[in-house]
Amino acid sequence: MKVLITGTAGFIGSTLALRLLERGDEVIGVDNLNDYYDVDLKLARLARLKQFDRFTDVRASLEDQEAMAETFRAHQPQRVVNLAAQAGVRYSLINPRSYIDSNLVGFTNILEGCRHHRVEHLVYASSSSVYGANTKMPFSVHDNVDHPVSLYAASKKANELMAHTYSHLFRIPTTGLRFFTVYGPWGRPDMALFLFTRNILAGKPIDVFNYGKCRRDFTYIDDIVEGVIRTLDRIPEPNPRWSGDHPDPGTSLAPYRLYNIGNNNPVELMYFIETIERCLGRKAEKNLLPLQPGDVPATYADVDDLIQDVGFKPETPIDQGIERFVAWFREYYKV
Fold first, then answer.
1. Which of 5, 71, 169, 241 has CA atoms 20 to 30 A from the CA of 62?
2. CB count, 10 Å around CB of 271?
């Protein structure tokens, strides 16, 4: 297939693009290489992709309407995976407008590209953060998610609503994927595993929020990518049993689906830190802090729909995933 992937210099996007290229697909990669975090790391991820003749590197921002329209016109992708976004819960308290530009204006340009060029299937990144103030565990795509607690979460919920509108009006098949705390080699420097590993090796303290009592459904990068590929290969159909009297948020009479991709096994933050310490052979100096604005105390993914529809369940144990990350970190940074 010819697949357009946005965010190909990113953590998930680069890993997905590599998998698709290895299986023989053609990939058009879009990224603006912004400086939200280390650009050199982004360039190193892209270097893995540029060894393939079937990879096209497009340097553009999602919110650039003309650039995105030209990308769709020039390359005519069959399917699209939108992973580019302004990420981060806490950063949305500091720079809210960047979330509007990338996650709302940018996503509109993606939807319009799919509409005008008859894209077979749009898969897009949502987030576990959309569950917001929900406390019923595990989180299900069939639950209502109308109480976000960060602008980032609100922008991802908005993406799901926007996608549904285009599926309803223009019959564009769309699949939203709610990722749960992705980690692993080539990860983002602003996320806990990367920050903790770097600081512990440097002998610096680590900030431990909610006094270490947070629980997260940490999901290994290879499991995330496997879930993306399996859902990309399965074009959603309307749910004939859907009823407006009892509307199901996870399906529709339109060709629209939502899935959680999570490890289905929440881990307490203190155990997460202890595992990093074991892999590094060093103890962390912990700076215990309260829960931060926009954060939630726990996440836990119900993945029954993912298992039922595409036959996949993430299963990489946290110990194994962290060990692989630490090995990559030591090699990449020569530590």
1. 169
2. 13
pLDDT tens across 214-250, in order?
999 999 999 999 999 999 999 999 999 999 999 999 9
> What letter would DSSP give residue 285?
P
Which DSSP string do the residues of 140-180 spell out, in sequence order?
A: -TTS-----SSHHHHHHHHHHHHHHHHHHHH---EEEEEE-
Q: Which helix (H) or strand (E) holds 2?
A: strand 2-6
pLDDT in tens, 19-43: 999 999 999 999 999 998 999 999 9
Q: Report the alpha-carbon distance of residue 30 to residue 65 in Å, rounded.
A: 13
In terms of C-beta density within 10 A (0-12 exposed, 13-18 middle, 19 or more buried), how is residue 239 classed?
Answer: middle
pTM above 0.90, yes or no: yes
> What one-letter code names the amino acid at 67?
A
DSSP letter for each residue of 60-86: --TT-HHHHHHHHHHH--SEEEE----
User: Could you give the C-alpha distances from 20 to 16, 55, 87, 89, 128, in angstroms and in order?
Assistant: 6, 10, 23, 29, 25
- DSSP at 129: G
For the chain, which ranges sit under pLDDT 50? none
What is residue 294's predicted lDDT score, i.e. its pLDDT?
83
Per-residue pLDDT tens digits for 94-119: 888 989 999 999 999 999 999 999 99
Tokens of 335: 């530590």
How long, in residues, is the chain?
A: 335
Q: Which entry of 124, 152, 256, 300 is annotated as an active-site residue?
A: 152
d(CA 236, CA 71): 25
152 is catalytic: yes
Cα 110 from Cα 246, distance rounded (Å): 30
